[in-house]
Design goal:
Largest interface: A-B, 30 and 34 residues
Shape of chain A: elongated
Helix content of chain A: 40-55%
Distance between the termini of chain B: 17 Å
Radius of gyration of chain A: 34 Å
Number of strands of chain B: 10
Oligomer: heterodimer
Largest sheet of chain B: 6 strands, mixed
Strand content of chain B: 15-25%
Shape of chain B: globular
Strand order of the largest sheet of chain B: 6-7-8-3-9-10
Strand content of chain A: 15-25%
Number of helices of chain A: 25
Radius of gyration of chain B: 19 Å
Order of helices and strands of chain B: HEEEHEEHEHHHEHEHEEHH
Chain lengths: 822, 265
Amino acid sequence: MSAVLQDLRFGLRGLRKNPSFAAVAILSLALGIGATTAMFSLIYAVVLDAYPYADHQRTVNPIMRDPEHPTAWMWFVLTPAQAAIYRQTPAFEDIVGEIGHEFEMRGQDLPENVTVAYVTLNEGSFNRVPSLLGRGIQASDDGKQNVVVLSYKYWLRRFNGDRGIVGRKLQLDDRVYQVVGVMPQRYTFGGKPDMYMPSTLDTQPNPRMIYFAKLKPGVTAEQASAQVDALVHQFAKEDPRYYPKNFHVHLQYLIDPVTKGTGASPGLAHTFPLIFLAVVTLLLIGCANCSILLLARGTARTHEFAVRSAVGATRGRIIRQLLVECLVISFSGAALGIVLSYFLAKLPLELLPNVFPSEALIRVNLPVLAFSVVVATLAGLLFGLLPAIRFSRPNISETMQASARRNTGSKGARATLNTLIAGQIALTLVLLAVAGAAIAGFMGLLRMHLGYEPTSTVLVGGPFAKGTLSGWQERTAYVEQLRQQIATTAGVLGVENGDAPPNSGFETDFSVVGRPTSQKQKTHMAQAGSGYFALLKMPVLRGRVWNSTENRQGLPLAVVNETFAKRFLAGSDPIGQQISWPVIDEIRKETPPPGFPPPAVSPAITGTLFQIVGVVADSVNDGLDKPIAPEVYIPSTSALFGGFNYLVHTQGDPLASMHAIQASIHAFNPNQKLWSDPYTLERILHETPEWGQQRLVSILFGIFAAAALALAIVGLYSVVAFAVAQRTGEFGIRMALGAQRESILGLVFRSTLPTVLGGTAVGLVLAAVFRHASARWSENSSQNPLILAGAALLLVVAALLASIPPARRAAAIDPMQALRSE
Amino acid sequence: MSAATATTAPNLIHIEQLTKVFFTDEIETHALSGVHLSIGRGEYVAMSGPSGCGKSTLLSILGLLDTPTGGQYTLNGKEVANLNFADRSRIRNQEIGFIFQSFNLIGDLTVYENVELPLTYRSGMPSTERKDRVQRSLERVNMAHRMRHYPAQLSGGQQQRVAVARALAGSPSILLADEPTGNLDSKNGEAVMKLLAELHDEGATICMVTHDPRFAAHAGRQVHLFDGKVVAEGELQRLLAEPERNPSTVSGIEREDRKVAGETR
């Protein structure tokens, strides 16, 4: 043990005496270990320890899947009576219900929208998460006291983390509630609401709730799904209004949407392998760099090893000493890497907020520390073993008897160094190529022709107040008056009713009158005011759009996009053709949940037929990475549901105008609530999973590739500098014999070039192989060979630049001095 | 133990028909060609000869820093010519103390740590004993007051004294010194030779390579090498003077040398 401590002391002293070596080696590893630890922190935070809820591994979330719409997931809601039956499912230990609602918090200049999750009274015993302040929802809450529990984020944002908040009164809509507690940071049950209220039928707006279930120990989700599927089909038979025609129930674990993805977004299993490969590559490059530095330094320490060996150190002893020194470096790197990882691991959570569980929290905890210790140990052994084995058997006799010691470094050592640097260049090129492709793919998204103009436009919407505006006429008039009111707001350039792209409308069956209908014939259907296309700069290619009068009348008119016209109306003039939508009948018959107004269909639409009056240019309408879907737009007043949506085009940043817009709406109707959190069209675009994923891959790979390039430059610089130091005598002789400085420079570059070109060639092959694999994860990555060539050129230029300082040093050698040192 | 009494002691080192050939590309260099030599316990042997005669190669093989190509080498009664690296390391650590021309101290270790170094490679030695041995060795060479210094802070003579202390610390069976005064001025050279003589007087077995006859004179016995073979003093002078050498003469000198060695048994 004392010998190990001695090795440790010597290792630390060695680093202290060679600060530049220590800094480069530690930083090389810190980048690799930091990236790897960040990856683990992320996996730990979002997969292994994603939820603070008790027994969350047994908690399942029921969804319905319609085989005809595999990408659409639906949650089913249950009445209290059904919930009582549902609770009796043999596979379940318990169930907990929640349903979201929006309130308006008053008592300030403008009302503020807050989201509230009503939770069943057993929530506390189900999740067993202790509150941060006060208490959570508990079984004794019967709804009469009007209590509210704040979420951590809302408490911080709205009340600046005031620890005296418990007991304060808040006015939500027209009632006063008392704050009884604040939940901890990771508790975001019910979809990140601002507040929680106890669910009682007296108070909650909708008796139908979504229920999570906790499985009995040993029961799998598949086993439970079979039981629940039969039960829910029975519920659907009793009241088919809330269920699709065909469906099956699937219980998924809480973590499943994160790892396996949802119908709309890919899971982490999709992106993580690529990122994992990248961090391992970076770690390998860092290890190679350390090996290079150790080999170069070790050659200078040949004498020391010979002395140690001469006085009796065995090979194993020298290997142990060198490995202890390597572990000192790798653990120092790990310490720095942990700090880096903390920030790096947060990046995906910030770039893909909708993909990761909101409960996930990046922390440096014991498992993360343990992981980094394991990685540091493995890395230390990995980069230290080769130099340790090489230097453990020095040529003692030759080294010890030399009257003037020179650290010549064998041909074998130089070959090892060149192999390592070539490998490092090859791996760096792969990272550069993938990063280049990902960045090019993301640039492609930035330059993507959307078919509409998203800038300076914000989506503003709200619900119709309960018990008001029950008829179509009243709603139409209200929506139009409010539109005109908003249009008069300072900074507002235009206001139109309609759905927000790029995922506008909903998919529905249809048929074209006089044409055969396929069973799988579906189109998107979106609503649009008369100025909608002009506001979004979507050109009308043929025919016309309804005017404002026609829109107010809710006439059965339609405008189709190009794709629709080409796919379903090929060979004939679309204008004047009629489309039939059975869904209109379903909307007419729809019974809303109690307390919600029923949808109102325009009296002008008597049947299901709509006449096509125009064709608009295609715009992105089904996500960013899928082909444009056929779409039909109908007047915004054709059917009015529980609320309204306006697209408000403003001068400059629309969020800057939001206060004025809200004030305008408040002046028009002080009781008019808005959907919380106004979304700009750009934000909607940027929060699509495709955009987020491509941006994440681009940023992470950009960081990794830049780090790898820096490491490769440092590694190459070290190798060239080492070689120049070894050949000082040779250069001195050459110069004494008349060699010009240029020829020495050329000599150094020529000795570097084969390694660089060899590494680049291997890297090109690897990148070509890897490109096919990476395309699976990064669909928008560019496959342009020019990117590969550009990455190779960048690397070669960087490598040559790294060779310049030592080459110049070689050319500046004083022949007399060099020969004297020989 | 004095040099005079040592001649009656059993041989510590015995080598027979030792050869060493270096292979470089396609060239064979015969550094040692059938050397016979014995060194008794307590002897002080000086090996001399012209540059390239093989004396340092022979010392390396004696010190188990190098392996012979052929022949036998018995150290302390054990055949050591064909040991593996680990066993040679162990024997070097326990039986042999080295003193080199260029001191071969490790610059990053203090004087104390340099002297302690061979003891750290000895398993099972308590730290108190290690400390005690280092202290005694340094005191023996009058360097105890510089134990916290680094080699670069010492003069050449002081560094060589530290190297001697390091060689002594492990209580080896033999001290092998390769041109120990080669990098020192005459005053420091004399001081080191005086130190070796004192150690010999205290009972140490010493084998020293030197090309300086003044220093070789300190030894009780002188062995001369020429072209990889052991020759007598007079013969050495003659061979050096003659451009054409007579192999049979050399062979006869070797036989004589064996005879002398046999008498010492």
